[in-house]
Structure formats: C-alpha cells, structure tokens
C-alpha cells in the first residue's frame, strides 16, 4: 500500500517506511543512539529529497530520545543546569543552521553539502570508533583491563575564564566550551537532521570531564529540546517537515527500539561499539559512492533568452 507525502511530493510504500523506522529504532535501542545519523541517509537512499529527509529526520531523534531522558530524570542522572547551558548554545546553533539550510536550498547546493557533511563526519567518527573498539577487544581477549579516563582530570578547557560549578556533574568549568559545544551540535542538527549524541557524548566525557553516568541523560536532555526547536524552525522557515512521513517512521521506531534494547543486553560494550562503527562507515561509504558515481539520469540546466 502506498501513501502520498505532501511535502516530499512523491508516493511511497508505507510498509517500507514502517520497516525503515523499525530498523532504525532497533539500532537505536541496540546501540543507545538517537538514530538521526542513520534515518536521514536511509531516507535519501529511498529518494526522499534531502531537504525533507533532514527536517523530518529530527522527529525520529525526538521520539527515540524522549523516553530515555525521562528514565534518566527519574534516576537523577541528568544535570539540568549543565543541560540548560548546552541547550542555550544548541538553540543558537540550530537557528543559524536553519538559516544556512535555507540559503543552501535557495542556491541549489543543499543536496551536495548534506551528503559531503555525512561522508566526512561518518567517516571520521566511524574510523575513530572502530579503532578504539578493536583495541578494546584485543585488550579484553588478552586479559588486560581497558584503561578509562577519569572525570576529575583537568585539561586546557579548565583554564578558560567564566567558570561555573555544576554540582550534579561534579565539575567546575568555563561556560564558554559548554555553550560552544551546544552551538556546534545545534548547527549540525539543523543541517544534517541529527541529534548530535555521537559528538556530544564523547566531548562531554573527554573534554568537559563529566562523569559517564551523568553524560547520557544530560546529552538526551539537550538533544530532545534542540531537535524540537530544529523541527519547528524548519517547519516555519523552510516548510520541509513532512508530518505523514514523520508519524509513519515513528510508528515503526517505537516497536523496533524495544527489541533492540533486549538484544543489546546480550552483547559486550566493545562488540556493540565495533558493530556501530562498521555500520557508520558503511553508510558513509555508500553516500560517498553516490557522490562520485555517474547518475542514471543525466540532465543539464540551461537558460535561454527570447
């Protein structure tokens, strides 16, 4: 059965969309990620216009992150004060990103820029994750403990001015990198349709030295509200949020996330990170291949006078 997507202006198979949402939801539950960096490329592969895929993909991030944020709030593992500063930067970044998105769309360069950003970021993040996870697997097989960085260690960030104490995270750090990190993630959310957790989480751990048990919940807190603001901004500024597409994807994603969480409990952390890294690299390689391969339909745009 097919449905018509009014914003995308195409008819698609509803079963394919539900399965796509379910698959991304499964992976979200399995790996503990929002899934924005997966759903947007998949929608593009399915011939959904990148402008609609980016704007609508943010809805999937909100749906998959909201329940996780509530669970962390109940456990008291969300630093609301830190999350609000990250959110302040995220809103500014999302606003700037939405305007850049509009300009790129008007200039006809949006598809290229979105694909290039995904190839670069997925390649870098996937490569780093795969290297780290393979090292961890080798160490675990050799009976060695994997060294972890401690949250109390200091780096160059702690020498910056405008410091503030965040008691829940047990850190005393400048708000400059906090707001800057939120701004960067918010910008990516608007341009790429991602929640940014794959950047936010390691940055909070290794840059800000936030304890791991607080990082996930605080990151989800920022992602939910930044993604919501991004969705509204795209809907108002660019009119590229397809509600029919969003609801269909979320219907499959809710069910898929439950099964993914069950499977994820049976795998070790190193194995999960290695599988996620391979998935990220494969998506990046596919997008890179689409950029260099000759398209099936060649066309040219010409202008002529009277």
From TrEMBL:
Gene Ontology CC terms, in alphabetical order: plasma membrane
Q: What is its main location?
A: membrane
Q: Which domain of life is it from?
A: Bacteria
Positions the record marks as coiled coil are none
Please name the InterPro entries in this protein's record: TM_pro_TauE-like, TSUP/Inactive_protease-like
Q: Where in the cell is it found?
A: Cell membrane; Membrane
Q: How does it sit in the membrane?
A: Multi-pass membrane protein
Q: Does the keyword Hydrolase apply?
A: no
Asked if the Swiss-Prot or TrEMBL record annotates the protein with the keyword Cell membrane, the reply is yes
UniProt KW keywords: Cell membrane, Membrane, Transmembrane, Transmembrane helix
Q: Which family does it belong to?
A: Belongs to the 4-toluene sulfonate uptake permease (TSUP) (TC 2.A.102) family.
Protein known as: Probable membrane transporter protein
State the species of origin. Answer: Notoacmeibacter marinus
């Amino acid at each position: 059965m097919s449905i018509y997507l009014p914003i995308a202006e195409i008819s698609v198979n509803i079963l394919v969309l539900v399965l796509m949402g379910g698959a991304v939801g499964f992976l979200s539950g399995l790996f503990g990620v929002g899934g924005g960096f997966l759903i947007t490329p998949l929608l593009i592969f399915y011939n959904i216009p990148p402008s609609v895929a980016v704007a609508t993909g943010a809805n999937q991030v909100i749906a998959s992150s909201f329940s996780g944020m509530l669970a962390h709030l109940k456990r008291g593992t969300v630093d609301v004060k830190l999350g609000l500063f990250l959110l302040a930067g995220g809103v500014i970044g999302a606003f700037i990103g939405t305007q850049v998105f509009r300009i790129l769309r008007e200039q006809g360069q949006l598809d290229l820029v979105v694909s290039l950003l995904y190839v670069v970021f997925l390649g870098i993040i996937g490569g780093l994750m795969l290297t780290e996870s393979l090292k961890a697997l080798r160490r675990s097989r050799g009976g060695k403990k994997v060294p972890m960085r401690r949250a109390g260690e200091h780096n160059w960030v702690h020498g910056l001015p405008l410091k503030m104490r965040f008691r829940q995270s047990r850190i005393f750090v400048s708000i400059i990198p906090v707001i800057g990190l939120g701004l960067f993630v918010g910008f990516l959310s608007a341009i790429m349709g991602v929640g940014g957790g794959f950047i936010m989480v390691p940055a909070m751990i290794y840059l800000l030295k936030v304890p791991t048990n607080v990082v996930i919940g605080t990151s989800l807190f920022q992602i939910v509200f930044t993604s919501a603001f991004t969705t509204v901004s795209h809907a108002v500024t660019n009119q590229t949020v397809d509600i029919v597409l969003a609801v269909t994807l979320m219907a499959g994603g809710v069910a898929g996330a439950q099964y993914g969480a069950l499977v994820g409990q049976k795998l070790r952390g190193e194995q999960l990170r290695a599988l996620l890294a391979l998935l990220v690299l494969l998506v990046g390689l596919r997008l890179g291949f689409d950029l260099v391969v000759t398209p099936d339909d060649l066309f040219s745009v010409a202008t002529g006078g009277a």
